[in-house]
Amino acid sequence: MKNKQKFHPNPELKLMDQVREVLRYHHYAYRTEQNYCQWIVRFIRFFDAKIHPKDMGKGEIESFLSHLATEGNVSAATQRQALNAIIFLYKRVLDQPVDEILEHIRAKRKRRPPIVLSQGEVQKVLNQMTGTHLLMTQLLYGGGLRLMECIRLRIQGLDFERNLIYLRDGKGGKDRTTIFPASMKRALQKHVEKVKQLHEQDLADGYGTVFLPHALAKKYPKAPQEFGWQYLFPARGRSTDPRSGKIRRHHVLESGLQKAVKVAVNRAGIHKRVGCHTFRHSFATHLLENGVNIRVVQELMGHADVKTTEIYTHVMAKDINAVASPLDSLEKP
Predict the structure, then answer these.
(1) Where do the structural domains in the chain lie, given as residue ranges?
(2) By the 8 A CB rule, do 285 and 301 touch?
(3) What keywords are annotated for this sequence in UniProt (predicted)?
(4) For residue 3, what pLDDT is reported?
(5) Per-residue confidence at 51, pLDDT binned at 50, 70, 90?
């Protein structure tokens, strides 16, 4: 079997343009492109841009990462993201792999039990929400969706007949299927009708196309205008695609839902550290508490390893009333 020929960026381009060229060749998400470029620029500027990255190595990279941890006081996850960006630069762009020599300096993530809401607390939060933000939060909890999976959900991802949600190109580029909350069916059908009217108006105005991942737009030229490919939660206005320059209606920003959840949690009088991801944690925990097999929960959550799912067994409510204290079994003097 022949090895795949490695893609080499145009050497006539500036370094950061080469980075973007390689990122887009490998179909990295636009958000990842922004983050990687930001970290690479910070890495270069850390040394006053006097030295080209190709002339630097393990010492400079360690110095930068150490600065982030000690002076920048960044989390392990943030430091790991910076390291991944630098490894990408050297491996994919400069063709100078450094991941092996840097493996031992990767920051270890501390595994902490997730914060989970009780079903009563979930209801209190939902009672403080209305409109689209309510629908989105119900999907986070009702189907165990990640924030961006909800934001990027397409119309065709909803199967009203089989009560399923199809999530495409999620975290790690994986596809999965999860459950469709039956109690949401009517509200979502009304919402879909409103989105359809908005899409028809966009088409009438000479727009109506939507971003499609990878080369789907070339393979299916009419797909970007089809209703099934439109976002379930479209933005209020049209905007210019930063890559293609085309005017389209993108999905809503995640910051809007994050703020709405924070306000609802405060109004509900809940003092836990709750974010959008808390509803996904609560989804898995409550399924386990209701007796759903952990392997089924693993599949619904899209976990590659059941050990990831097992973390929810540490926070689920357990019936300890029937457990006797060992002190009670001692003989009385």
Answers:
(1) 15-105, 111-318
(2) no
(3) DNA integration, DNA recombination, DNA-binding
(4) 47
(5) confident
Structure tokens at 14: 């500036």
What architecture does CATH give domain 111-318?
Orthogonal Bundle (1.10)
User: In whole angstroms, how far apart are CA 120 and each of 93, 272, 301?
Assistant: 51, 14, 22
Q: What was the pLDDT predicted at 216?
A: 79
Domain 15-105 has CATH 1.20.120.450: no
Among all residues, which ones are annotated catalytic?
A: 146, 171, 277, 280, 303, 312
Cβ 300 vs Cβ 170: under 8 Å = no
Dihedral sign computed on CA atoms, order 141, 146, 147, 148: negative
Query: Which pTM does this prediction carry?
Result: 0.82
Q: How confident is the model at residue 2 (pLDDT cuts 50, 70, 90)?
A: very low
Helix, strand and coil percent figures for the chain, each rounded to 5: 55, 5, 40
For residues 230 and 194, the answer to whether their CB atoms sit within 8 Å is: no
Instruction: Give the CA angle between residues 273, 313, 291 to the nearest 5°.
Output: 115
pLDDT band of 300, cuts 50, 70, 90: very high
Q: Is the pLDDT of residue 104 over 60?
A: no
